[in-house]
Amino acid sequence: MKNIAIKNKKTYEKHSLAGFVKKMAVVMMTAALAVSTVGCSVGHEDYSGAGTIMGTIVTAGYRAKGTGNGEKVWDMLNQAGIELEKDTLSRREDTSVIYAINASAGNTDGYALTVSEVSSDEDADMEKLADYIELCMELSERTGGAFDITVGALAELWGIDEAAMDADIFSLPTDNEVMQALGLCGYDKVTFDNNIINIPQGMILDLGAVGKGIYLADAYGILKEYCDYGVVAAGGSILTYGYKEAAKQWHVAIADPFGEKEYISMLSLSGSYFISTSGDYERYVEYEGVRYHHILDTKTGYPAESGLCSVTVVIPADKKWDSYFQGAYESLSDIDISGFMSDAITTAIFVMGEDEGMELAASYDLDVLLIKNDGAVVMSDGMSGYIE
Predict the structure, then answer these.
(1) Is residue 279 part of a domain?
(2) Can you give the residue range of the structural domain that contains 326?
(3) What does the pLDDT look like over 294-309, one tens digit per residue?
(4) Across-strand partners of 242?
(5) Number of domains into which the chain is organized
(6) In terms of pLDDT, which residue wins out, 248 or 14?
(7) Which of 52, 173, 281, 387 is a Cys-bridge partner for 177, taking CB atoms 3.0 to 4.6 Å apart?
C-alpha cells in the first residue's frame, strides 16, 4: 500500500496556556445533558446510567423514544460492549476472534476471517473485523508504525493496565526483556490477504487503542434507533448523538491536567460527534519516581516520549471517508470509521509528536488539540471554533 497524500493542509495556532488540558471528560450532570432519570415528556423517557464496560467506566444519558425504554437502551449499550469484547476484540478472552488469531501465531495457514454462505450476525461481525484490521494496517503504514496493533507482546511485558490498578504488582522490565518483546512486534511482519491473516510466532495483536471508538460507533446505532438524542462516554472517548431541544448544545469539559481547577474550558458541540483523548494520565504507574504510561512506542519498546502529554480529536460522526483510505471497507459505514479513527488517531499522534502529528491530522482534515509537556497548547483552526 502506498502512503496517502497530504491534502488541504491547515494552518495551526500555538497557545501558551500552561496546563490547559490533559484529558476530556463528558459532563454527565443533568444540567449538561438536559436529561434526567426522573423527568420525561409524553412518549419519551429521560435516562442516565453508569457502569463498567470493556474494562472501562461508561456513562450515558439520553432521551429514549417511548416511555419505559430508558433501561432497555442501557441494557443494549451494556450488551453491545460485552459482545464486542468477548466475541471479537479481547486478546484475553478465549472466546474472541482476536484471541483466536493470536493463538494461530506461527501457523503457516494463518487465520481465515471468512463468512458462511448463509448470512448471520456473526458473519457481519467477522466482515467488520476484517475491515477494521485492514484499516489498522493501512493506518500503521501511513504513520510508520506510530499506530500499531501488534504491540501486544510489549503491552503484556509492561503490564501497565494491571499496574495502574495495583502498583505493587509492577516490575520494571529490563532492557533485554524490552528488546525481546520488541522483536515480536511490527505491523510489517503481518500479512493479510483474501481475509487470511498470518502473524509470526509470539506476536500478539492488541486492539485496545481502537476498542472504545469501535464500541461508540455501535452505541451510535443503538441511540439512532431508540433515542432522540444522547451522549455516551467510555473512558476518554465520547459520543454525542443528535440535537437537544431548545437549540441546546453538548458541553464537554476540558479538565485541568494539574488539578488546580475542576476544568479549564468547555467544548460546545451541536449534533453528533466522536471526541477522543489519549494521554499519559489515563493509565500509568509511578515507580521509583518515574511515571510509566500505557501508550507504547514500537520503535523503542518503551512508553512514548514525544513531548506530548495529551491529544484530543473531534470528528463529526458522519464525516465522509471515501477519499482518505485505499480499501473498499464495504461492511463499514462512515459512522464506523469515524468512531474507529477518533480512537486510533489520538494514539498515533501521541507517539508521533507535534510536527508529524499535526501533519497527519491535516492529511485527514481532522481537528485536534495537543497538549505539550511544557503546558503549551497546539490546535487546529477548526478546534478553536469548538471552544466556548
Answers:
(1) yes
(2) 12-384
(3) 999 999 999 999 999 9
(4) none
(5) 1
(6) 248
(7) 173
